[in-house]
Amino acid sequence: MVNTTRAKYVFTIKEFSEGTPWIMAEPLNESVKLPNHGFLGFDLPKGTNMAKAKEIAKFMNDNLDQISLTTF
């Protein structure tokens, strides 16, 4: 059985312990969760600074409406 769930997410900047930025997709609706209580993260290219990471996250927030998760 195929099941697709769509939800609105907000993309926020996080930092690895050494200060490297990455982007986390956080659901706006608490009832929508990834399997096993996980999260969806995006690693940025090596050398990406915080200002560029914020620019990328803003672009994603402005241009992505929903994330779809399909399970089989």
Brief summary of the model shown:
This protein is of the alpha+beta class and 72 residues long. Helix content is 19%, strand content 39%. The chain has a three-stranded antiparallel sheet with strand order 2-3-4, with helices on one face.
Annotate the secondary structure layout.
Layout: E1 3-7, E2 9-15, E3 21-27, E4 40-43, H1 50-63, E5 67-71
Antiparallel strand pairs: 1-5, 2-3, 3-4
N→C terminal distance: 6 Å
- Lateral strand order in the biggest sheet: 2-3-4
Largest sheet: 3 strands, antiparallel
Residue share in helix: 10-25%
Estimate the mean pLDDT confidence: 90
Radius of gyration from CA coordinates: 14 Å
Summarize the helix and strand pattern as letters.
Answer: EEEEHE
Can you give a write-up of this model?
This protein has 72 residues and is of the alpha+beta class. It has one domain. Helices cover 19% and strands 39% of the residues. It is built from one helix and five strands; from the N terminus they run ββββαβ. It has one helix at residues 50-63; strands at residues 3-7, 9-15, 21-27, 40-43, 67-71. The strands form two sheets. A three-stranded antiparallel β-sheet has the order 2-3-4, covered by helices on one side. The termini are close together.
